[in-house]
Amino acid sequence: TINTNYFIQSNLSMAELLYRDRPEWNDITPIPLPYNDREPVVQIMYSERFKDVYSYMAAIMKNKEYSERAFDLTTDAILLNTANYTVWHYRREILRELKLDLAPEMEYTRSVIADQPKNYQVWHHRRCIIEMSGDASKELQLTEETLDKDAKNYHAWDHRQWVLNQYAMWDGELDYVDELLTKDLRNNSAWNQRYFVINSTVGWSKETVEKELEYTADYISKAPNNESSWNYATGIIKKNSMKYTEFLCFTDLCRRLHQSNVPSPFLMSALAEIYIEEENSTAASNIFEKLKELDSIRANYWSYRQQELTAC
Amino acid sequence: QMLGLVPEMYQSIDSSRLTVLYFSLSALDLLGKIEKISDNRKQEIIRWIYSLQNKPCDDDYARCGFIATDSLPSDVDANYGHIAMTYVALCSLLILGDDLSRVDRDSVINGLKCLQLKTGAYQCIALGSESDARFVYCAACISSILQDWRGMDKDRATEFLMESQSYEGGFAQNVGREAHGGSTFCSIAALTLMNKLDDLPRQRRNDLLRWCLQRQQTGFNGRPNKPMDTCYSFWLGASLKLLGAQDFVNQDANFSFLMTTQDRYIGGFSKWAGYMPDVLHSYFGIAGMHVISNEVEIHPALNISMRAFRHWQDNIATTAV
């Protein structure tokens, strides 16, 4: 699935002539890369190919040549160092200058993303291309493909949120989140996306919070030790300045699970917050006491929370 | 070893070459080995760093700051300064005992100004880039070290960071994104440097604290239900230190985890046990071990040794800090 322009190019260019041996480039005087092995400071021992490509890239950029051959050169330069933001920028300038067709560029960025899905520069480049073309029709699919391989890729989620915000393509996004949570209810990124969609569309009325708590309760029951679901449930109440006690369904759930002795530190932490809201310091203190043992790695913190109760 | 000649495979990080210098120097510093570098050699390195400082173009400061590498000539138009390179350049200079007298402060600060967006966030390069908490952090560090906040609308930057605190309590890279250990460090450190950490309302600070503490498994992860990684010991360790919550970290557990990601044969740390060590994780492994324990003192916001920080305090800082 990775075999697209980017890699075909890369396999070819490895076998191709160095730029300095290509007659069609002999009008250019390459600017050699500095190489200091007398007083080296993080002196990278660049390969022949790297030095060749970048010495020509430097000359082209210095001359401000915006041409097809310069464009192809940036492809080689990016292959050798995909994080080179200066070269990516120059590539964009050529695209604009020559008014090149953006469709192949979309394909190209897709293949680079497939190869290096955590590279900042290619995602930014893709965003710029979309801003130029105004066509965001492929982005949900692209990010979905990327997330299929790594469901928590921060860049993919970032891009997806940007697209949704910018082009208001909210239809079906909640369904997508549902799908992801069905596949993995511990996918914290999916939970975050859920918050994002609701926040950006219907907003947080009491009814919505109630509905979302019911939705989350289901997942909590399936896996009571899943931090993501608890963060979501407690988060939607607190972020919207509401109170736990406004939501009987949730407080009942917590009490029920506690009565069944479900050993979940997240449950206990939520219950403690509920007790504190109900001004029941004794009950809260008991919870913190239990947490010192159940969640012993944070024993000092739970002690502190206990002490905090008495300090009015 | 990283300070001298570096293998071909590092070609792909040529564009952050200065950060490799910083990681190497700061690691040596934390290990108490900075004095092993001769004065001559220190001057060589300092000279190289300054060679990466861009000059303004008439009244245009957009390209100012430091660049990452000398592989592209500095007079190529598009070779603009990069905010993270400026940050690590200043840190590296401090570690080497330089007095920053060759830093063109006005140009650097004016360059910073070009990078702040209407949202309050920063880009890393004036040509255009992604904008997020990482670069707000860099801006805060630069402004702090140079004691000049004219390149930073602190109120707007603070607003951006506050908006980026998610429902979970941690900070994301941007508004609406997922809370993350790295961006949480960047945000807390930036707020601290800007003196805005106390702007956080009590409930939100409590949620932030709890989220940070929940990241500890034995070592730390960066997000719920994700695996631990060496570098998060620093991102979260430093965050918790800045929140005054270092006593709530289980140091033994953290230390045990970091011992497993250390490479017995090559030295250094990797992200996970059994993987190839790299300079970034090696640095953060060391820093992560010490940021809480205080066996070696680290400035938890600037991410340099307290020794380097005291050099800044004693020899460079012009007002009482």
**Radius of gyration of chain B, whole Å:** 19 Å
Strand content of chain B is: under 5%
Detail the poorly predicted runs of chain B.
none
Order of helix and strand elements from N to C terminus of chain A: HEHHHHHHHHHHHHHHH
Shape of chain A: elongated
Which protein chains make the most extensive interface, counting residues with beta carbons within 8 Å of the other chain's beta carbons? A-B, 66 and 69 residues
Shape of chain B: globular
Structural class of chain B: mainly alpha
- What is the gyration radius of chain A calculated from CA atoms? 27 Å
Structure, described:
The complex is a heterodimer of chains A (312) and B (321). The mean pLDDT of chain A is 94. Helices cover 68% and strands 1% of the residues of chain A. Chain A starts with a helix and ends with a helix. Chain A is built from 16 helices and one strand. Chain A has 312 residues and is mainly α. In chain A, helix 5 (102-115) packs antiparallel against helix 6 (120-133). Chain B has 321 residues and is mainly α. In chain B, the strands form three sheets. Chain B has a two-stranded antiparallel sheet. Chain B has a two-stranded antiparallel ribbon with strand order 4-5. A two-stranded antiparallel ribbon of chain B has the order 6-7. The radius of gyration of chain B is 19 Å and the shape is globular. The mean pLDDT of chain B is 93. Chains A and B meet through strand 1, helix 2, helix 4, helix 6 and helix 8 of A and strand 1, helix 1, helix 2 and helix 8 of B.
